[in-house]
Amino acid sequence: FESDPLKTFQQTFSDDNFLNSFFGSSCGSQFHDPGSGSFTFLSSGGQPQFPGRSSRPKNDIKDPPVERDLMLTLEEINSGVEKKMKITRKVVTREGFQSSEERIFQIQVKKGWKEGTKIKFSNEGDRIPGHVPADVIFTTKDRPHQYFTRDSDNNLIYFAKIALVDALCGTTVLVHFIDDTTRNLSVQGVISPKTERIISNMGLPLSKTPEKRANLIV
């Protein structure tokens, strides 16, 4: 006498043809869970089927964006450049196995892009069941420059240091340009810390009309 009803069932109905005729051939293969002592019938794709349940959650959670700085020199903003940025994202299978993979993004930086420009790659974050992958967002940031800063209008600002005697009598200032050239700029009269000279069309390209340039302010 077999006390285990599951074994009794298996011994009595061991013929696969009988099972197919009883449950139907569309049930596919079967998966046995030794811990529970029960059978779960699988679809032909191998995924467990549960009455009234979908194999994929209806309301997946959107992960918050992954944000990274994209550091650019003023020379790169002046000429445009292609940058490659790498992130490492987590990949989790529905069975719970976890791994990591590298993702490389190619970004074509346009002439004159302003600091704070955002570049978004949708759904490129971690792969986790029940979650919609996060967007990956790169935000441009200017690297400090030896000579220049820039304002919100893409004007380049160059601070020239001069001696006190030159400030009182006037002088010639050596001015650097973003294309690595220089020019002598004559400044007459008394010079104060707020004295400015504007050299037209020698700043950075304008973001919306890159064929035009902003100014250089000395």
TrEMBL record:
Single GO term (MF): protein-folding chaperone binding
Cross-referenced InterPro entries: DnaJ_C, DnaJ_subfamily_B, HSP40/DnaJ_pept-bd
UniProt keyword Chaperone present: yes
Residue ranges of the region described as Disordered: 38-64
Residue ranges constituting the Chaperone DnaJ C-terminal domain according to the UniProt record: 67-218
Record-level GO cellular component terms: cytosol
Domain of life: Eukaryota
Keyword annotations: Chaperone
Name this polypeptide is given: DnaJ homolog subfamily B member 1 (Trinotate prediction)
UniProt organism field: Myxobolus squamalis
